[in-house]
Predict the structure.
Amino acid sequence: MDFADGALPIGELLDERRHLLDVAFWMLGSGAEAEGVVGETYRRWYRLAESERAVIEDPRAWVSRVAGGICLERLAQPGRRRPDRAGPVSAEAAGERRRMLEREVSAVLLRGLDALSPSERAAFVLNDVFGMAPGAVADIVGRSEPVCAELADRARRSLRDRRGRPSTPRQQDAVVRTVREACAAEDTDRLTALLAPDATAFFDGGGKVRAQVRPVHGRERVARSLLTLLAPRARTTVDTHSVNGRTGLLVRYDRRVAAVISLDVAGRHAVQVWIVVNPDKLRLWNQAVPRPGPP
């Protein structure tokens, strides 16, 4: 649809601003800093000459790249202070959406993100949290697509190491098998009890399937997501299998691997759930994992 003189519907304008605020908050961990980044992003947009703005085919992608770049600049500043999460924020930053987002993002997870390098944090947030295309992530981070993929992988490993206390293979196996049983029985209460209160689920669809784009936080919401994904369905099976050297879950559809799920276990609870449904990443699984025989 064409809009007169470049005007846009108010809903589209507000949605773009909320998107930028969310990106900046995840990358910097502070509502007040996020507001500053968004303000600077729009100042840079309006500093462009009209002729420069006219040739930008996707303004939302442009402001997203600029906001991501500003966040990277701030993360890389020497001696940058960790955000004071309990400190005062501006009136706008204290709006309901900001409060909701800050409640959703576990403080433990934010502390884990603070420990990452700027490039690792950016690659992880843009890829895993916002599901941006690999090319867009590489453009913002300033590295090649393979390097950005490795940065995101390193960030995931770091978050796993910080979140989970060492659990024995036997504890891991018991929790994962019980999660599978609870999903098969569609037992919400049992599944919820197996998750830590601040459990987080990450979905990697790689932009190739319509998976969750944002992480899911809190045991109740993670339980609902797992039940939706793993509840019994025709032609679908869920089996335990070694994933990254620990017991995980394989979901098959028509005997092909459709999802690989790894769980980070601390004691008797799963603290993080990593769900890969990206067909590109599952290609090797379908070559390497023997298909189950007929029932």
Notes: The first strand starts at residue 195 and ends at 204. The radius of gyration is 21 Å. Confidence is low (pLDDT under 50) at residues 1-5, 84-97.
